TrEMBL record:
It comes from mine drainage metagenome. The gene is hisC. InterPro entries: Aminotransferase_I/II_large, HistidinolP_aminotransfase, PyrdxlP-dep_Trfase, PyrdxlP-dep_Trfase_major, PyrdxlP-dep_Trfase_small. Pathway: Amino-acid biosynthesis; L-histidine biosynthesis; L-histidine from 5-phospho-alpha-D-ribose 1-diphosphate: step 7/9. This is histidinol-phosphate transaminase. Belongs to the class-II pyridoxal-phosphate-dependent aminotransferase family. Histidinol-phosphate aminotransferase subfamily. The keyword Amino-acid biosynthesis applies. One of its GO terms (molecular function) is pyridoxal phosphate binding.
Amino acid sequence: MIRPNSTIDAISAGEPFIGPERIMRERGLDSMLRLGANESAFGPSPRAVAAMSAELPHLAWYGDPDSRALRETLAERWATGLDDILVTSGIDELLGLVARCYLEPGESAVTVAGTYPTFAYHVLGYGGRVESVAYRDDGTIDLGALASAAHRCNAAICYLANPDNPSGSFVDAEAIAGFRAALPARTLLLLDEAYAEFADPAAVPERRTMPGIVRARTFSKLYGMAGARIGYAVAPQALLAPMLKIRLQYGVNRNAQIGALAALGDEPFASDVLERTARGRAAYAALGQELGLPTLPSATNFVCFDCSSRERADVVLEALLRRGVWTRKPGRAPLDRCVRVTVGDEAAQAHFAAELRAVCSRVTA
């Protein structure tokens, strides 16, 4: 009998993400308000759309395997060397490269129980073990407990999303530096900064390489290019060099490279997205206060509404979905009492608010 290798065979079957397309098919829905994947409600920059559209006749061409033009622009923005930048097919690909390069079979990686799941997905797939610590009850991350766990299991990698998904919590640059110092010297800190642009710029670690840290960034959130699948790593060259041995040479598509480069040049558009997202977070907070669903502080493009119990959150989630509003909820305690909602544009916010009010009028605590 033909069988997969023992590492893969031992992993329980599961689906980290069920997309809205499948939900619509299974429920017979013709349309849906998409507020479940933290996709940008404001779309990509018009400059990016124009640049990508102009190059569509050349879709038969492969992209530059070096992503040279994009890396040059990023290196300038980060005031670092060209070889300190690695462009990947979204952060998800980068998470896999880090796991393959820095984790021996049987070794441990540490993270927060219930955080973005794709890193753990890769760790298990490459034969590693995942050790995790719980969120605090308020959704913040106990960095001390995470560092202690890394020492306890002699972790090869520590994964930290900052700002965090799904809680939206954020720790500042000083805390990150202290956390890196508290980790074992042999532990690589994989810092997922997918939502960093939405946080207070003065509190985010400055744009530079940091010893012992691989910083992951994406064009999916602020720049509205999730479907293009493009992101990048910033790290000392010595940490990125092993990944060059195993990365897919043509894994990043050409139009994504072109769009990302154009997006970086459209600062007014990015600033507008940040301003509208901040207003949307404030509107969600006011809505939550009105309905008795307090929101957790968020430094992202989404907000968690606290429904006070897992059971009530499940009811709210399902009731919204029945009304054509797709949201998500964290799967692990203590955050499984929350419903996570992407900040939509102004029309989507109004639509969501009306539906949530209708749901809450029928759902008891």
